[in-house]
Amino acid sequence: MRKLIVLTFITLDGVMQAPGGPEEDPTGSFSYGGWTVPYFDEFLGNVMGEQMGKPFDLLLGRKTYEIFAAYWPFQTDPGAAGINNATKYVASHKPIKTDWSKTVLITDVAQEVKKLKEGEGPEIQVHGSGNLIQTLLKNDLVDEFWLKIFPVTLGSGKRLFAEGTIPASFKLLESSMSPSGVIVASYARAGEVKTGTFA
Hints:
It is a single chain. Helix content is 23%, strand content 25%. The protein is α/β, with parallel strands linked by helices. An 8-stranded mixed beta sheet has the order 4-3-2-5-1-6-8-7, with helices on both faces. β7 and β8 (183-189) form a beta hairpin. The longest helix has 10 residues, at 42-51. It is globular, with a radius of gyration of 17 Å. The relative contact order is 0.23. The mean pLDDT is 94.
């Protein structure tokens, strides 16, 4: 059984849209592209290096795949090797260019991702891919969240936990904080929501 892990940069109010720069939002309707940049430091770079420093495959939505495919094949830093060597599973109902090595198109996310998880291989990481994450959440396919929670609110933008997220419990696996105040927290799925009363 393979774990499916969502790695996400989010704001305090849950926005995950366009963290790396304005060019990540092709509609131009989001005013805060690149909101993580002022907080990114060596600490966060080391966290990302550790989380991506072992074999993994990628599961990406079409838009994130296109952003990655335009950038990562041309990079030579140590982090690039893991991404370029990973099998890239791309969820899309539209045709895509699959000339980036080891790219596999999937169209039925719920069924095909369930089969991927049941098979053999390294963990499956999801980066970006907001719309895809909503489908994964609705089908209870996410095993862990590796979150970087930035000390900023944006008020609007695509949120990690949008309408339709199923009720679920998680347990904290580990946490730390960067010098700039970014909380790094990893959570694992932990069954159903439990309720109680203080009465």
